[in-house]
Amino acid sequence: MAAQYVEKVRINPGNFAERRPAGATYTEEELGEAQERITVALASFIAICKEHHTAVRIGVNHGSLSERMVNQFGDTPEGMVESALEFLRIFRAANFHNLVISMKSSNTRVMVQAVRLLASA
Q1: Which CATH class is domain 2-120?
Q2: Is residue 16 predicted with pLDDT exceeding 70?
C-alpha cells in the first residue's frame, strides 16, 4: 500500500512472504517452493513500484534472516549476502533497478564482512 504514495519503501527479505519457525529445516523441494512463493509475492509488489516510480530498499538484517537462509548458510555474513542477492536476482529478472541495498547487524564485524562480500559479488 505504501509503495503507491511514497518515494521509497523498505522490504526485509527475512520476513517477506515467508514465515517458518526458528530451527526449521528445508528439503530441496521446499527450498524451491519457498523461492517460487517469494518470486510470486514480489511480482505484484514490483508492478506497483514500477507503476508509481517507487524506489525499493532491500534491508537485510542479520537478526532477522529467514529460516531458509539460516538453514542453508547458518547465521553468517554469507547468509546475509545470499538473502540480498536472491532478492536482487528477482528484481533484475523483472527489469526493476531502482534499488538500494542495506546490510545491518548489531555485530560490527559481521556487518563489515557482509558488506565486503556483497560488494565483491
Answers
A1: alpha beta
A2: yes
Beta strand residue intervals within the chain, DSSP E: 8-11, 55-61, 99-104
Residues whose CB falls within 8 Å of the CB of residue 43, separated by 6 or more in sequence, listed in order: 94
pTM: 0.88
Give the end-to-end CA distance of the chain in Å, rounded to a whole number. Answer: 32
Phi/psi at 17 (5° precision)? 60, 20
What ranges do the domains of the chain cover? Answer: 2-120
Helix (H) or strand (E) holding 21: none
Q: What are phi and psi of 96, to 5 degrees?
A: -115, 120
Contacts of 90 (CB under 8 A, 6+ apart): 38, 39, 42, 46
